[in-house]
Design goal:
By secondary structure, this protein is an all-alpha fold. It has five helices and no strands. Helix 3 runs antiparallel to helix 4 and helix 4 runs antiparallel to helix 5. 32% of the residues are buried.
Length: 97
Amino acid sequence: MRGRALFSIIILLAGALIIGPIGAAPADPAYPTAQHQFDQGAYSAAIATLQGIVMRNKSDAQAYYLLARSYYELHDYNAAIAQADQAIKLEPQKSIF
């Protein structure tokens, strides 16, 4: 099961590299800051910003998705899988998740 989850997150992140950001603009005004931090390689800062976003809105699948990508970049694969799973639970119809 864990192997399948890890495979899923690898596919998830590979897809992100190919198609880039997903969906409509997020509702939380802090999201652009988190995206900029991620784009600049400041993954720990992005995680802190994104954690604030998901505390305010636990249904923000896009924030969970970027959290997964951030944790992945820091080689924290267990946390990346957990965040990716949450994004998928929230929006299972999104093929990018």
